[in-house]
Amino acid sequence: MLLLIDNPVVAAGLESVLHQLPRVRKVFAATAATWSRAVDSGDFQALVVTLEQWELLGTRGAGDRQPLPAVLVLGDAPYDRYSELFVSLPVDGFLALSELTAPSLDDTLRRALSGGMPMPTTLARRLLSGSHTRTRVLGQGPHSVLLTPRETETLALLAKGMSNKQIARVLGISTHGAKRLVGSILLKLGSPNRTSAVITALKEGLV
Question: In the prediction, which pLDDT does 77 show?
Fold first, then answer.
């Protein structure tokens, strides 16, 4: 587990919780100067980053040796404070600092690594309520998107936070097929991650 946390108290507390989890074998606390090299080592399956450091992830490009691992953003009220980053930065899940426990962290990590989109219930509600006020009818906006019926089904399941494996089970297809559908949706919506895809879909009136 790779950590990019600028607050030493928070970093120490999170490390302590992580060491309680059997699935976590290695924890490395990186800095703004070392985190990218740590990612390039390929030794980490997940990266926990604070809201304040999240923007650093936007500095990585196609020329980097390793893709980013699963990204979990740590912080409270992220949408209210950093809503503009949701559609531009990589993220695979969110952790509420005020609700952090060993069981919740273990569950979030498990879901993120299996292709899910874990986030606190309060954040999910905030995303839905915040997006509904800007919803456009499909075909009326400047960035209208045409999805196949299968992609529309997949998008609805994606909006429920389902992983590729869960989507495959519901649709009766292979996990590879579900992954291909999700990838196509992200491409059509111009989204870098599953969370921003759902936000964009809500804005476009697709779900």
Answer: 73
Q: What is the Cβ-side half-sphere exposure of residue 22, based on CA atoms within 13 angstroms? A: 0
Contact by Cβ (8 Å): 76, 97: yes
Per-residue confidence (pLDDT) for residue 144, from 0 to 100: 60
Alpha-carbon distance 88 to 115, whole Å? 19
Q: Give the CATH fold of the 134-203 domain.
A: Arc Repressor Mutant, subunit A (1.10.10)
Q: Where in the chain is the domain with CATH 1.10.10.10?
A: 134-203
Q: Is the pLDDT of residue 83 over 80?
A: no
Provide the whole-model pTM: 0.65
The rounded distance, in Å, linking the Cα atoms of 128 and 161 is 13
In sign, the C-alpha dihedral spanning 127, 128, 129, 134 is positive
Distance CA 117, CA 133 (A): 23
Please provide the DSSP assignment of 69-121 as one string.
-EEEEE-SSHHHHHGGGTTTS--SEEE-GGG--HHHHHHHHHHHHTT-----H
What CATH fold (topology level) applies to the domain 2-120? Rossmann fold (3.40.50)
CATH 3.40.50.2300 residue ranges in the chain?
A: 2-120
Supply 88's token pair. Answer: 């531009």
